[in-house]
Task: structure prediction
Amino acid sequence: MTAQADDELWSAIADPSRRRVLDLLVSNGEVSASWLAGRVPFTRQAVSKHLVVLEQAGLISRRKQGREVLYQVEADRLDQAAQAMADLAAQWDRRLATIKRLAEAAHAEAKKGKES
Amino acid sequence: MADLVIEREVVIEAPAEVVWRTITEPDQMSQWFADRVELVIEPGAHGYMGFGDQGGPVVVETVDPPTRLSFRWNFPRGEEPVAGNSMLVEFTLTPEGDERTRLRVSERGHELRDWPDAEKQRYADEHQEGWGEYLDRLAAVLVKGQPG
Result:
């Protein structure tokens, strides 16, 4: 993933309204913009804008069926987004594990010093 | 809080004072955080964290021993770090008895990469749910497989 594509992904996913749209797509499969607009507390125009951003970030794709345009999530890309956030969380988990090891060792050492 | 936040925690079998020293003393910090730590733990102190041949400035924000420490990093070179251009790392230590401490860390500001200001403000106004919850739900969905 390039740095720029990464930025697009983060901004796309950081917005709660877009996450709501994304959530609906994840749980309902292929749906139209009007269907989505009926289920969110913002306008059809706002839904369309969110869909454009999500599509640019590669998180969703569209397909024409008759007169309707249907949207669906791109599983791989979503997985990347989840993975990127999980990687950062895992980095903090590793740091915390090291802090735990250092602090517990220091504490055990201090106690030993007191006892002897 | 209006941010995209990573929050993690760990329970440590040591008093808060010991944990505090581990997270604030430079020779200890260099073991769990950066390879090179040049930092005085005082509010407003500017320092440096080096990771191999990379690194960057850090500014200490809150110092409240032995319960709270926060600093900002990942801000643009030449700028003062504030909310909106940097990531805020906060440590919270909660004693659980004499020899046990719950250490929580949060890192906020992940959404600030390359955002237009208006977008940031709107996001700050609207945001209510934590990222963790969303991520868990997302992960659960991904594990279950894609619908449709």
